[in-house]
Amino acid sequence: HRREGSGGIMSSSAAGAAAAADQQSSASCDASSSESSSSIIIDGSQGEGGGQILRNAMVYATLLHQKPVEIINIRANRSKPGLRPQHMTGLRLCRDIAGGTLVGDEVGSSRVRYDPPDMSHQGRRHVVGDTKTAGSICLLLQAALPCALFATGGGDERSIEPVHLELRGGTNAAMAPQIDYMTEVFLPIAKARCGLPEGITINIERRGYFPKGGGVVKVLVPPHLTKLKPISLLDRGHVTEVRVRAFYAGKCPRWVPEKMADAAVRALRQASNIIVPASVQPSVEVVLEPNTIDSASGILIVARTDTGCLLAGSALGRPKIKPNVTGTDAAEELLQALRAGGCVDAWLQDQLILYMALADGTSEVKTGCLTLHTRTAIDVAEHMTGAKFEVEPLLPVEAKGQSDGISSGSTSSSVYGVNGIVEGQHLIRCRGIGFRA
Question: Which of 87, 224, 373, 383 is catalytic?
Answer without folding.
Answer: 373
